[in-house]
Amino acid sequence: MSGTSSSLRSRFKWFFLIIIIGLLSAFAAVKWYQKQQPDIQVLTSDGVLQHIQHLNNLETVAFHIDTVVTSTREGSWNRLWQDQQKGLFVASGRVVAGLNLSKLTPENVSVSKDGKAIHIKLPPVEILSSSLDKTEIYDIQTGLFGLMDIDPQLLSLAQTAARRKIIQTACQSGILELANGNAQKQIESLFTLTQAQITVESAPVPKCA
To answer: According to the lineage, what is the superkingdom (predicted)?
Structure first.
């Protein structure tokens, strides 16, 4: 009798084990099937706009420029103009251009009804920032016999002139044209995973300041 009871328990254990294995196999099969199914993405104009504006400023090109500037402080008549100061400065700076994406509006973005086509009209590219990394004195004259202290305003005037000059140099080198082309490519790359057809329309390149 005990042998029969032991046999029943053994069969029950095997039956229970088979059920567990079956359930685990079914669960694994469902998970595998879910992984094979592509994610369903619903694209809307508002969603595309928010996705782009999240970047705030899109810096698409940066120029590093070295320039030489002069700065002069005129002498005063009561010192017979012998207190005139003149300096020659070497400045290194950086000019960044790209898109201010806060200027993108809902009218700039359109999505087809089936969500398979996106058209984006970009705002004009612009100079986003300019900065001086360093300004060094190359040569300076501080009045008769060089006995006068350097006027701090001399350096300030040189830095102002240097910022203006590095922007001018960047403009002459085509920074906005390069930024425009890069902006179009970078915006297109944002939506490569959507499998939608992307059309990015660049605005005319504005006059560089």
So the answer is: Bacteria
